[in-house]
Structures are given as structure tokens and as C-alpha cells.
Design brief:
Layout lengths: L3 E3 L2 E5 L3 H6 L22 H19 L3 H16 L5 E4 L4 E4 L5 E7 L1 E2 L12 E5 L4 E5 L12 E6 L6 E6 L5 E7 L14 E10 L1 E7 L6 E8 L2 E6 L2 E2 L6 E5 L4 E5 L7 E4 L6 H7 L1
Antiparallel strand pairs: 1-2, 2-13, 3-4, 4-5, 6-7, 7-8, 9-10, 10-11, 11-12, 13-14, 14-15, 15-16, 17-18, 18-19
Helix pairs in contact: 2-3
């Protein structure tokens, strides 16, 4: 995906036509620590079963030093980095579902279209987008599956790195918002664990959303630029700012932002955990 220079930031388009086409392009190539265009290998069911077997043996293989163990470790690394573990669509031209590389039916053939851009072996998502032919909704991958939203969106784009956010386009207004996965705690016995739910992180108010990042010590921290009527704002997993600014500046080490309007002398200060800046303003008073 080609980056854009927008409002003084280098960002990646997500919700544009080009962005939607290329957002998951990295899933087509080897998963290694260097840039490459080596296409992934499409596995057979036997490959998938052998991969699962070697994964379970992983710790024992590292403890051994014989030739056979080293050979299996090399094969496991090849499976990890060079094979395509995304699911495939099942069904026909009328109704489709999802089937994993192992042959497991993840979703029955009940939809006009289904989302396939995820690793169905190592990082199977909790919810996936499905279409009824007129709109999109989110469906759980539980057994049985549960429809988590109405078919009310023109498009749904799962965030590509952490897989905790969904960028959604309202069917009526064509504006973009964001949903997040939350885990509310259940106190009643025997349900002591949290169950995943969906929550509105940002209502559909943006014309477009772009991916940006803070260059932090361990790895880049992703956040998002929102745009509406030639103005911009920021969106993080912790909330969003008003879309009223002309540009923003970042302090990567502190994960802070200076949200700047050309018609104001004072800037709005915010950080990754308080993108609306409200708590920051209270601290400055």
C-alpha cells in the first residue's frame, strides 16, 4: 500500500477505494522481518494437519538436538512464515461460507459474501464481517454463530494489526465510524469470565480514515487520522477527537499530540489514552 502525505503526516489510506483494495496486501507475502514480495504457498489439508502437529511439538523439538528434530523445526518455521493460513470461501455463486485450511467449516454457506483476510490457524478473530447482498454485519465465529449487529453497513474493515477495531460505513450517510471489541466482566456464577462484546468507539462522522503511527521504543504504536470537510482529527482505541483541526504534531516518546487549528492561537493537547484532550486540559489548569 502506498502512503500519502496528508496535512503534514505520512499516512496510509484505509477507507478509500484504493485503501480497501490494498489494506491487507501484507497478508499475501512471507511473514519475515524484511520487506519482500515472495508469494505465500497455498496449503493442503495435510499441510495444515502437519503444521498443527509440529506446533504442539514445538517445545520438545527445541529441547532436542538430533537431526530429525532440527529438520522438523525448519519445516515449522517454513509453515510459520511461507504458508497462507487464511480461510477460503465455501459454497456456490448464491450462498457462501468460510472453511479453514484444516477443512473446518467456520461459517455455513448462508451469506452473499464473507470476509477472509485473517489467519484462521494462528489468530482466528472473534467476529468477522458477513454480507446479505445488500449490506454488511458482524458475525461471531462461535458454535453456533451469533449475529452481533444488524445488516446496516455499506462496508466493514477490520483493523489489520491488533484486530480489536472495525471501521464501519453507515449505509445511509456513507460516513465512517469505528466499533471496538470489549470484555465486560460478568459477576454472576458460573460466568466468572468476560465475554466479548461490541461497543461504538466513534459514531459514523468521518468522510475518511487513515492509518498513522507513533514511533515508540519497542514497536510503532498505531493510531488513526480522521477526516471530514477538509478538517482532521485523531482516533485511538481509547476514543476520538473532534474533526475540527488543520494539522497535528506528535511527541513519539510521550505519545502526545498537539492538535492545531489555523484560526486559533492555542493548541489542543491530547495523548494516546485521551485523544479528546479533556483530561489533559484539566491537568494543565
Amino acid at each position: 500500500m502506498n502512503p500519502l502525505d496528508l496535512c503534514g503526516r505520512i499516512v496510509y489510506p484505509i477507507t478509500s477505494e484504493v485503501g480497501q483494495k490494498d489494506y491487507y496486501e501484507h497478508l499475501n507475502y512471507w511473514r519475515v522481518c524484511y520487506a519482500n514480495t515472495n508469494p505465500l504457498i497455498l496449503p493442503t489439508k495435510d499441510d495444515a494437519r502437519e503444521y498443527l502437529r509440529l506446533r504442539e511439538m514445538n517445545n520438545k523439538l527445541w529441547a532436542c538436538t538430533n537431526k530429525e528434530s532440527r529438520k522438523k523445526l525448519r519445516q515449522l518455521e517454513i509453515y510459520n512464515t511461507q504458508y497462507d493460513w487464511r480461510p477460503q470461501k465455501s459454497g456456490d455463486d448464491t450462498f457462501v461460507g468460510l472453511i479453514s485450511p484444516t477443512g473446518e467449516q467456520l461459517l455455513h454457506d448462508s451469506f452473499a459474501d464473507v470476509f477472509t483476510q485473517f489467519d484462521a490457524i494462528n489468530s482466528k478473530p472473534i467476529f468477522v464481517p458477513v454480507s446479505n447482498g445488500e449490506a454488511w454485519a458482524l458475525m461471531s465465529l462461535t458454535n453456533p454463530p451469533v449475529l452481533m449487529t444488524d445488516f446496516q453497513y455499506s462496508a466493514i474493515i477490520p483493523e489489520r494489526w491488533k484486530q480489536r477495531l472495525f471501521f464501519v460505513q453507515d449505509r445511509e450517510t456513507k460516513k465512517w465510524g469505528a466499533l471496538e471489541i470489549t470484555y465486560p466482566f460478568l459477576h454472576k456464577k458460573p460466568y466468572r469470565d468476560s465475554l466479548p462484546m461490541l461497543k461504538i468507539l466513534m459514531p459514523p462522522i468521518a468522510d475518511a480514515i487513515y492509518e498513522d503511527e507513533l514511533i515508540t521504543e519497542d514497536e510503532p504504536t498505531t493510531f488513526f487520522m480522521t477526516q471530514r470537510d477538509f478538517k482532521i482529527g485523531i482516533l485511538t482505541p481509547f476514543g476520538y477527537s473532534d474533526i475540527i483541526y488543520d494539522r497535528y504534531e506528535t511527541d513519539n516518546a510521550k505519545c502526545t499530540f498537539r492538535l492545531i487549528r489555523n484560526d486559533r492561537k492555542r493548541v489542543r493537547r491530547a495523548d494516546y489514552w485521551h485523544p479528546d484532550g479533556k483530561l489533559i486540559d484539566k491537568k494543565l489548569q
